[in-house]
Amino acid sequence: MHGVSPAASVFLSVFMLIQSTVEALQVIGGNVTVVQGGTANFPCQLIGATETLSQISWQKKTREKPQNNNFFTILKTGPQFVNGNGDDGRFKFIGDLKAKNGSLQLFRVTLMDEGTYTCIFTLFPSGIHKTEIPLNVLVPPVTILKDDHPILGNEEVSLVTCTAAGSKPPAAISWLTGALTGKVRESTTSTLNANSTTTTISSLLGVPTRELDGQLVKCVVTSAAMTMEETLPFTIQVYFSPMEVTILETSEGSFICEAEANPPANITWSRIDLPWPQSAVREDAVLRLKEMTPDLNGLYQCEASNQHGSKQQQLRVYVASGNCTACWVLFSLLFILIVAAVAAAGYLYKSGRIQWSGDRQPVPTNSSPPEEGQVLQDSSLMGR
Ligand SMILES: *[C@@H]1O[C@H](CO)[C@@H](O)[C@H](O)[C@H]1NC(C)=O
Ligand SMILES: *[C@@H]1O[C@H](CO)[C@@H](O)[C@H](O)[C@H]1NC(C)=O
Ligand SMILES: *[C@@H]1O[C@H](CO)[C@@H](O)[C@H](O)[C@H]1NC(C)=O
Ligand SMILES: *[C@@H]1O[C@H](CO)[C@@H](O)[C@H](O)[C@H]1NC(C)=O
Question: Which residues, if any, are the signal sequence (predicted)?
Fold first, then answer.
């Protein structure tokens, strides 16, 4: 208003006001956006009319019924549904006929309700005055995180997949990769569904090394249909068949077989070539030799297995007949020595009493039992 005097300004305003009232017989509507499941308010107001209002009616054209149809009429006697159309208890007249307010409410909105709603005022004598109100329905995605079960290897595979299904408008997926940044990459695709929602799928790709195992990543899903972003955390698991199998003596005559594996290995003890002796017990990973009797002599095998593979380790037991208190002592001490030797150098250790098969390959079952002379030599070592 630069250069216009205050008096001129007042005059201008009054003039514009008059002009708008003269031109202004019109129906004010709007553009409605609602999240699926919510309530839609269709505003509709007739302004500038001095004629008699005989009725307000509503038409709709939706995904469910694409042809335009009359479904609601508001008369002086009150609102009523046309031919039962739309009469499922979800529509409610919230306007006021006297105030020329035709506003309508729709509860529990679904994607099928999306379309165009027309508010029509019938005046006497000028006739029909209407406005079209688009209803835009937003659908939040259904999010799913799926472990792609990467198996230890050196080629890039999909580690985990994040899906945001049936979103309108399309959802965006991103990953927070923390310590793995630069070691993994994302691959995202989206598909438009027939109902105009979009399904977005994003996979995190990487080389499934032990380094990736146990690392935390997060899938972040954002969509205009959600009030806040959704974060789905996931701990990467790299699966592998049993690695080194070790047999440890936990107490006198009790052995435990252990193997690192993912998922954890199932441990099975067996005896090579001979039936299971009465004086030995196997309970899951534990082998217990109850009494030191020569019937225990032989080769025992522990097998660790999971769905990705299996690995074995063997234990040779030799009990000499005779003074068995001494046998026990000898047995244990030798065992400790063996464990130390295996741990330090990882080579095959042979004793007169127990033969530890440190190699991954099963020891040939025809391997000869320790010779008598060797046993005597070991015994003399023990100061017998
Ligand atoms: C209504 O609003 C939606 C979302 O804000 C927009 O995409 C659409 O174009 C609008 N439609 C009209 C007719 O204004
Ligand atoms: C028409 O009615 C609705 C619902 O009661 C109300 O929110 C709206 O303000 C009314 N419009 C006018 C112009 O009074
Ligand atoms: C839309 O279509 C997709 C794919 O067919 C389906 O998964 C989804 O549930 C549908 N959404 C709605 C709101 O009907
Ligand atoms: C472990 O092995 C035993 C004996 O072969 C078998 O019965 C059992 O189903 C296995 N368990 C699993 C979890 O593989």
Answer: 1-24
